[in-house]
Write a structure and sequence with these properties.
The structure is a homodimer. Chain A contains nine helices and ten strands. Chain A is of the alpha/beta class. In chain A, the strands form two sheets. In chain A, strands 1-4-3-2-6-7 form a six-stranded parallel beta sheet, sandwiched between helices. In chain A, strands 8-9-10 form a three-stranded antiparallel beta sheet. In chain A, strand 6, helix 6 and strand 7 form a beta-alpha-beta unit. The interface between A and B is medium-sized, with 27 and 27 residues. Strand 5 of chain A pairs antiparallel with strand 5 of chain B.
Chain lengths: 289, 289
């Protein structure tokens, strides 16, 4: 029976009951404010696991003081209804602090793919992600977990964590979902004014422009990135980074490209007013139709 | 059949074979240079687990530059023979770097009981311990693991790690083992000259003196610790710390004791020449006969 739980012990009771029946579990960790991107993750989980758990937890460890933890969108009732309609068997509405024991004292710090890009601007961020994901994997022991490619570096961090600490979870990457205007779906989009939303379209356009230039023969990484950055700054959007990296390890792309570059990914983070947006795409796959 | 292995894959093959037979596994993690203290850990493991694995690995992550990683005693052949004779079913002689994958990039950092005492003098130490223990638990998935009370703070860190990351390992604490002269057994004792060994007896004597003063009615924590420190400095031994703490959480003991203090522990670390020695005992249980 699909339903929601608040307390950790209720979650673990349900998990144990599924184990006794030999049912596999897929986890979709979220911070709530669900949109069609999240629902696609639930669909991916449903396709492989017998039971799907959606966790909704605004993890304080991945916000620094002064970041948008307070204004992060919250909509628990609607989230539950949407998640269950999308096929979740259980929604875990984790109350603050229920996820960690009272005397919790362990941090999990990823280097490797966790360095650079987001880390340069949010140095606490991946420690928060790795710690809460380690705790969720350890508690729930899912066979599968689904993460969106929208947060591409996060996906890589989770894959690395899962390998290093041998959680044995099959990590499933779900493609980024865009709105009809090509803006990547994000819970933070709810905090954009309509004027900002219009301006924010420069984010996918910056990727599109770089992809097009590459398709038309531009082979300088520096030129491609500069084209993307110009689209953003021309729209009054502050660029945190606009980089071309190898998808496999997030190391910088070569300066000169070969034209046969199947493993390269454009990564962008930018501020539209106070709303921070991230986006990415494969260099040979323009994001917008 | 008792034996030793070098490669991780051989270890995991043996582990998998035991799982198929429904046998439980006890892990005794060591850095080699085994002594009777280690052998007592193997005995403890043997008493509860169907199969006992002794790992021998001088973990580079728990040494800082300039510490004694190079001079740490090594005696693999003798270690193997001793461990097997003591009841180990498998000795894992981990080659350097075999324990971590090539692109390993995860650190596990304990705060809580990992703060203070050793951390004040070896700030890298418990991150090294927690990371390697997390990796060993994750790889081997033992039902039991045995740690000596000689490294009392380490034992507490491992208990915390095991709880926080839900490894589900039953952690067994084994009492500290002393030589006939009352010095706590330690692999590092091999690096003491005979003159230093004589002087090192001030370490257990410092604990003994504080315990005796407590038994005779001294109730000031400061006075008890000062008595212990004096024993060490009078013997020309540099004190890193000599503290009285609560055994449960390693927080400082109250300034004034009640006389009914069953949860207090004296913790000492000191340098005899370049050899660093640690020792500890319950305040109401003098270490020497």
């Amino acid at each position: 029976m699909a339903s929601s739980v608040y307390e950790l012990e209720n979650l673990l009771e349900r998990r144990a009951a599924w184990s006794r029946l030999g049912l596999t579990v897929g986890l979709v960790p979220t911070m709530g404010a669900l949109h069609a991107g999240h629902l696609s993750l639930i669909g991916k989980a449903k396709a492989v696991a017998d039971r799907v758990v959606v966790s909704i937890y605004i993890n304080p460890k991945q916000f620094a003081p002064g970041e948008d933890q307070e204004s992060y969108p919250r909509d628990a009732e609607n989230d539950c209804a949407q998640a269950l309609a999308a096929g979740a068997d259980l929604v875990w509405l984790c109350p603050p602090d229920s996820i960690y024991p009272k005397d919790w004292a362990t941090s999990v710090i990823p280097s490797g793919v966790g360095l650079g890009l987001e880390s340069n601007h949010r140095p606490h961020f991946f420690t928060g992600v790795a710690t809460v994901v380690a705790r969720l994997f350890a508690l729930l022991k899912p066979q599968f977990a689904v993460f969106g490619e929208k947060d591409f570096q996060q996906l890589k961090v989770v894959e690395q964590l899962n390998r290093d600490l041998c959680f044995g979870v099959t990590i499933i990457a779900a493609p980024l979902v865009r709105g009809v205007d090509c803006l990547a779906l994000s819970s933070r989009n709810r905090n954009l004014s309509s004027e900002q939303r219009e301006r924010a379209l420069a984010v996918p356009r910056s990727l599109q422009v770089a992809c097009s230039a590459y398709a038309e023969g531009e082979r300088s990484t520096q030129v491609l990135c500069q084209l993307g950055r110009s689209v953003l700054s021309d729209s009054g959007i502050a660029v945190d980074y606009f980089e071309l990296v190898k998808s496999s390890d997030l190391q910088p792309a070569p300066r000169e490209l070969s034209g046969d570059d199947t493993d390269l990914r454009l990564m962008v983070a930018a501020l539209c007013g106070t709303v921070r947006l991230i986006d990415n795409c494969a260099l040979d796959t323009p994001p917008c139709p």
